[in-house]
Amino acid sequence: MEKLTEQLRQARRVVVLTGSGISADSGVPTFRDPQEGLWAKFQPQDLATPEAFRHDPDFVWQWYQWRRKRVLSVEPNAGHEALATLAEKHPALTLVTQNVDGLHQRAGHRDVIEFHGNIHRNHCLDNGHEVRVEGHPDKPPRCRLCESLARPSVVWFGEAIPERALERSVAAAQQAELFIAIGTSATVYPAAGLADLARENGATIAEINPEATQMSAVDITIRARAAEALPALLAGWD
Ligand code: APR
């Protein structure tokens, strides 16, 4: 941890990439955890796709309603909070998250690049109009402007990363002197490719994860949960 703290002090520009592991300490299942309830026999990869939604919009919509409810019922954890505080203290720390749960923002993190969108927003299928959803409908509502179905504003498998999020993340990774991956299995691209970009440009690569991952050429490995390691990193900074 001392090595990472030292690197954090020296690096003028830092990029942090988070995955579902940082929300695990809040009680939100990671993507590779088995699903529960109605969706137990499905992989997220089977549900988080445009095809699944077209095939059965109500079923996919209900899965998102269940996930939204679960995420709103938990709190950001010490990892989210420590990272938000660190971002206030470090002059140039960019956070890119693969998570759609909004927990970084609820922990007070001000500028979050949402690489895979946000589960609390919806837009319509045909034109991308934002759709405000009242109450808890168990069927996808229709867009007031064009009548097409509302869908969660998350990036489904096979869909493009929001352009602005991609641009900002690539630029930050290319200029980073320190890249810290937290709670991600580094299996889904292009998010997982950001570390390669940083490494190619000379960044030190660090990883905070209780398990080994597919990340290659990691310079600093912290085998710990985010809720333990990030408060320790913040304490080392102060
Ligand atoms: N602290 C830190 N890391 C943790 C913790 C924890 N408390 N608990 C689990 N992890 C790690 C796991 O070891 C695993 O490496 O978090 C990682 C979670 O990996 P995934 O479930 O694959 O989640 P993620 O990497 O975010 O998935 C990336 O895949 O399914 C798509 O779009 C989805 O954004 C998601 C993307």
From TrEMBL:
<feature type="binding site">
    <location>
        <position position="67"/>
    </location>
    <ligand>
        <name>substrate</name>
    </ligand>
</feature>
<dbReference type="GO" id="GO:0017136">
    <property type="term" value="F:histone deacetylase activity, NAD-dependent"/>
</dbReference>
<dbReference type="GO" id="GO:0008270">
    <property type="term" value="F:zinc ion binding"/>
</dbReference>
<dbReference type="GO" id="GO:0036054">
    <property type="term" value="F:protein-malonyllysine demalonylase activity"/>
</dbReference>
<keyword id="KW-0520">NAD</keyword>
<feature type="binding site">
    <location>
        <begin position="209"/>
        <end position="211"/>
    </location>
    <ligand>
        <name>NAD(+)</name>
    </ligand>
</feature>
<feature type="binding site">
    <location>
        <begin position="183"/>
        <end position="185"/>
    </location>
    <ligand>
        <name>NAD(+)</name>
    </ligand>
</feature>
<dbReference type="GO" id="GO:0070403">
    <property type="term" value="F:NAD+ binding"/>
</dbReference>
<feature type="binding site">
    <location>
        <position position="226"/>
    </location>
    <ligand>
        <name>NAD(+)</name>
    </ligand>
</feature>
<feature type="active site" description="Proton acceptor">
    <location>
        <position position="116"/>
    </location>
</feature>
<protein>
    <recommendedName>
        <fullName>NAD-dependent protein deacylase</fullName>
        <ecNumber>2.3.1.286</ecNumber>
    </recommendedName>
</protein>
<dbReference type="Pfam" id="PF02146">
    <property type="entry name" value="SIR2"/>
</dbReference>
<dbReference type="InterPro" id="IPR026590">
    <property type="entry name" value="Ssirtuin_cat_dom"/>
</dbReference>
<dbReference type="InterPro" id="IPR029035">
    <property type="entry name" value="DHS-like_NAD/FAD-binding_dom"/>
</dbReference>
<keyword id="KW-0012">Acyltransferase</keyword>
<dbReference type="InterPro" id="IPR026591">
    <property type="entry name" value="Sirtuin_cat_small_dom_sf"/>
</dbReference>
<feature type="binding site">
    <location>
        <position position="64"/>
    </location>
    <ligand>
        <name>substrate</name>
    </ligand>
</feature>
<feature type="binding site">
    <location>
        <begin position="98"/>
        <end position="101"/>
    </location>
    <ligand>
        <name>NAD(+)</name>
    </ligand>
</feature>
<keyword id="KW-0808">Transferase</keyword>
<dbReference type="GO" id="GO:0036055">
    <property type="term" value="F:protein-succinyllysine desuccinylase activity"/>
</dbReference>
<feature type="binding site">
    <location>
        <position position="124"/>
    </location>
    <ligand>
        <name>Zn(2+)</name>
    </ligand>
</feature>
<dbReference type="GO" id="GO:0005737">
    <property type="term" value="C:cytoplasm"/>
</dbReference>
<dbReference type="InterPro" id="IPR027546">
    <property type="entry name" value="Sirtuin_class_III"/>
</dbReference>
<keyword id="KW-0963">Cytoplasm</keyword>
<feature type="domain" description="Deacetylase sirtuin-type">
    <location>
        <begin position="1"/>
        <end position="238"/>
    </location>
</feature>
<keyword id="KW-0479">Metal-binding</keyword>
<feature type="binding site">
    <location>
        <position position="143"/>
    </location>
    <ligand>
        <name>Zn(2+)</name>
    </ligand>
</feature>
<keyword id="KW-0862">Zinc</keyword>
<comment type="similarity">
    <text>Belongs to the sirtuin family. Class III subfamily.</text>
</comment>
<comment type="function">
    <text>NAD-dependent lysine deacetylase and desuccinylase that specifically removes acetyl and succinyl groups on target proteins. Modulates the activities of several proteins which are inactive in their acylated form.</text>
</comment>
<dbReference type="InterPro" id="IPR050134">
    <property type="entry name" value="NAD-dep_sirtuin_deacylases"/>
</dbReference>
<dbReference type="InterPro" id="IPR003000">
    <property type="entry name" value="Sirtuin"/>
</dbReference>
